[in-house]
Structures are given as C-alpha cells and as structure tokens.
What does this fold into?
Amino acid sequence: MVDLPLDRVPMPENQAAMRSDFPANISVSPKLEVRNLFKLFPSRNKQLVVLQDINLAIAANELVCIVGPSGCGKSTLLNIVAGLLPPSSGQIRVDGKPIDGPGRDRGMVFQNYTLFPWLTVARNIDYGLKLRRLGRAERDRRVDYYLNVVGLTQFSKAYPKELSGGMKQRVAIARALANEPDVLLMDEPFGALDAQTKEQMQQFLLELWERTHVTILMITHDVEESVFLSQRVYVMSSHPGRIKEEIRVDLPSQRDIEIKLTPEFLKIKRQVVHTLHDDRSSSHIA
It folds into this structure.
C-alpha cells in the first residue's frame, strides 16, 4: 500500500510559537535537559558503565538527533529520558522540573510501531486518551484532528494489518501526539522501513514538525537522516557511551530530499561521519 501525502492542515493556536535554534552562545531555558547522567549495569560482580556524564539541552520547538555506533547506549539514554529506566546518577529535566518516571509531558515512538492489532487506527490513537479518562467528545476531537494531521482520516476504521509500514508509523506518531506531549522522543522510528518509504517518512516528519512545532529528540543510526532532519546532531562515542561532539546543522529550515545533494549538506554529513569514524578507530586501537 502506498503512503498518502501529509494533509495540509492548520496549526492549533496553542502550538503556533516560533521554534528556537537554541544557539550555544544565547542563554535560554531548555525544554529538555540532561545533566551529568550516568547509567551503570551490574556485570560479573562489577558495575558496567553504559553512559558516562551525559549532558545535553534541547530548546522548545527544536528537532535534535543523536547518532552513535551500535552499543553506545543511544536507546538506553532515550529510555531514561522517557522515564522507562532510572539513571544511576544525574537528572533529566523538562521545563526545569526533574522527572522521576514516565509522564504525559513526554511521548515515545518506537521503531516497531507497537500498535494493538485488535484495535482500529482510530482506537489505537484513542488508547492513551481513554486511559486518562478524557471525555468521549474530547477524545473524538483529538483523534479526528491527529488523523487529519498524519493524513490517515480515511483509514480510521482500518486495522494495523491493512496498513503499510510507513502508515503504521504515522499512526504511532499520531497516538503519541494526541496526548499533546511537551517533548516527542523517537527511537530509530524509520529503521525498519525500506529506503523509499524511509525518505517519504523523513519528509513527512519535517512537514509535521513545521506544523506542530513539537520538541523532538530522535535517536538514529543513519547519519544522512540525522543531518536532513535536525538542527543539531549530538555524536556519541561508546565504551562507555558519552557525548563526543555537538554539530550544528546550518541548513534552511525548509528542506526537501534534493538538499541531500548540495555541497552544504555533504559537508555537514562528512563532519558527522568523520567524528564517528575517529571514535571507532580509537576504540579499535585501544
């Protein structure tokens, strides 16, 4: 089944704030902040350091990607930010307030969709709202709105088995957005898609972000994807996982697939690749 283009829908008034590029030389209060984060796991009568002194900050309405080699702790970091895992030490703050578990202020989108196969598209989106015991009229309003946002209104009564991979991920994103989180966390959301669908979903996510202005922190192993989508890229190194470098993506906010062929894009991509390669080389030597 072919994915549908994103519907052109108006932005809700409460989401119309302009996003910030969060320049390092300007003092702003971050929407999401990770402070001095460590994560240790027990291993053969000792403590294995998985994440070491992680510090990062994301401004309101910013889209930031984290890349790093396999096993560097990217997904562990995102699960801690989501409140699904406790940190060994350090803090996660949303709007300056420490978090101590899952919360409505953070929505999560996983790689494998995590849809309920026995529920229709509309009822999948409605699931979290029902758990919150919102009234039926408000739930229906949000479901209808976010179905329109992700371009799946005519599939509201379909079941997940009737959808393509890209459409399933759109439903998962709509379900997360329906709870109106302050931060959307995405763990390699397009990693299971074929190359063509992946590019379609990348463009879809940029268009969605332009309309909703939700703050997004995304984990990806795809360097090109990280440069195409984000305003900044955090590069992680492994053993233990730590932030090695922060790379700004100085590209126009309005982007299409053709930008991947420009010298400016390739220069930033090369910088990210070299940073990753240097880490792997030094790890190999060690």
